[in-house]
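Issue 218. Parser rejects a valid record. Input:
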Amino acid sequence: MNLTYTSTRGHGETVTASQAILKGLADDGGLFVPTALPKLDVPMTSLAEMSYQEVAYEVMKLFLTDFTEEELKNCIARAYDSKFDTEVIAPLVQADGVYFLELFHGNTIAFKDMALSILPHLMTTAAKKNNVNNEIVILTATSGDTGKAAMAGFADVPGTRIIVFYPKHGVSPVQEKQMVTQKGENTFVVGIEGNFDDAQTGVKKMFNDKKLAEELGAAGFQFSSANSINIGRLVPQVVYYVYAYANLVKNEQIRSGDFINITVPTGNFGNILAAYYAKLIGLPVNKLICASNTNKVLFDFFTTGTYDRKREFTVTSSPSMDILISSNLERLIYRIAGNDPEKNAAMMQALTGEGEYSITDEMKKELKDFYGNYADEQETAEAIKALYEDTGYVIDTHTAVAAAVYKKYVEDANDVRPTVIASTASPFKFARSVMTAIDSKYSTLDEFELVDELVKISNTEEPEAVKEIRTAPVRHDHTCSVDGMENTVKQWLGIK
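Output the parser choked on:
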């Protein structure tokens, strides 16, 4: 099947997978979605015998149909290599009766590596396929992890530049140090005086600015995105859910065909949307458990059917989820609206204009695959402490939100079937929050003393990503206002 992509808002043209990856965002501001959903065409018993790279090919070939087998396998081989500190790429760890899918073994110790290790290879391959001569400028907003993972992926990749905007006071010290020490002559990092939603809104505004696109084109540049709005980010994320299920079968923890639950700590909705796509292509998934932090805009949506961003923004210990506008939710809205672009566009317009939209009762029925709940700061800390004291296993704050919400789901639904929890970041990335949750005595230690203590109590090695930033010099110290984002981009690109 030759799979094509269309915009969730209906006014963009139908494009190939490689064109969708290059564009990032559709011309009408919508997100690219497949015009039909493929089906897994390899038996689970066969997938269970495959490496991560082999599973990646079997899943990604279904979505990226205009890539040749050689092109796709080459992208996969270059992405999932020795930059990951475990050969299996995404190990499953059983603790407290659930399976933690560790997605943080890449070189920036967060789940974003799983997709952003391959996106530069997909994008440069797509550029060649489509005879693109412009230099590709990756424009990205980050709540902490995407920025570093994207820069690490694109650093010094020929024909590309990458600029990352992050909330200056809204990321962890380790996250910020990882970004501002990033090497690469084609990388640029800017802290904005605002939150992640401000950064993301500013980036989307630039993507939708036709005059700016013309100025860029005249100077030999074109924008693309490394955020999870890019279908080239979403497709690789589907892989690890299929791989996790296959491994449960391989280890005889479930039988092929058994239904599992998947719990995902959720901010921008991309990671749980990938799990939903895995279900849609044939993975036996019963319930998708959407875990929010104190910024519980998604919990309220699943509870009421109204998405309302008009609320106080809270900076939490799980900053990658500190989001009030979950961009990838648009792909779900489009689907539950019966793939109706006009309905979806009207809701997105209401979100921009009035700050909220409500779905119909018919659409609510289509959300039966999802369960939403949230964990506040105390519940998050308690989940870290309890799991460590009971099992010796240490999780980060985002994974702890998921673990706490999973417990609530079990209480609400009395459903104890096998469950995979997406473990989205290494505890070393949020050492202060993790260590003080375990014991308040650690609160007086500095950032790297906390890392040393975490090595001891978790009985694991310090990740290379943390070792590197102990002594790495700061290379980026730029800041700007939200209103100054466009001028900052132009100045860096040398456009007057």
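Fixed in the parser; the record now loads. Residues 92-109+234-464 form a domain with the Rossmann fold fold (CATH 3.40.50.1100).
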